[in-house]
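Shipment paperwork, digital attachment
Item: protein structure file
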Amino acid sequence: MKKSFLLGFSFLLVASISYSQGRTHSGFYFSMGLGPAWGTSNGYDNQGSVAIITGTGVEFDFQMGGSITKNIILHGTITGKVVAGPQINGTVVSDDYSLSETMIGGGITHYTPRNFFLTGNLGAGKFTFSQSTGNSYNSNDVSTKYGFSLLLKAGKEFWISKKLGLGVAVTYGKTMVNSTEGTYTEKWNSNRYGVLLQLTID
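Attachment content:
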C-alpha cells in the first residue's frame, strides 16, 4: 500500500514538473472546487430575536471565464455552502434542517509563475433555510433577499496535463443581507472558511 502511494505520488510530481515548464494561463478558463467549510451565520431583528448558527458543512464553487492577459483571468462565479443539522444558539438541530448560503457574481484570479493563485469575487448572496419532509423530492425552503457577498480564495495548483491543473485552496466567504418590510427589520451576516480541492481546465 505504502509502495503504491509513493509510486503514485512520484508519477504526479514528475508529470507536474514536466507540464509546468513554460506553462501560463491563457484563453478559456474553468475551475471547480469542493471541500469542507465552517464558521458562523448570525441573524437578528429589531424585535430582539437572535440566531447564532454554527456547524461544519460542504462548500463548492464554479468559475468560468477567460484570460485578459497572461496569468490574469476574469470569470463568472457561482459558490455555495451547505450545513445540515447545524447548531442554533448552542442547540444541535436535526439533520432534516439545513442552512445554505449561495452567491452569484464575478471576480478576478491571478496566477504566479509557480502556479500559486489568489482569487477575489464579489456578487449577490442569500441564505436559504430548508426542512426535509421525508420525501427526497420535496422540502420546505425559506430564503432571504439577496445582499452583498464576497469570496476570497488562495492556493496552489500543479499541472497534471497540458490543460489540466489540480490543487488546493483556502477560502473566506461573507454574505450580508438586510431585509425591511414595514416596521420589521431583519439582518443576516456570515463569516465562513473552507479548504477546497480544486480542478482547473485552462
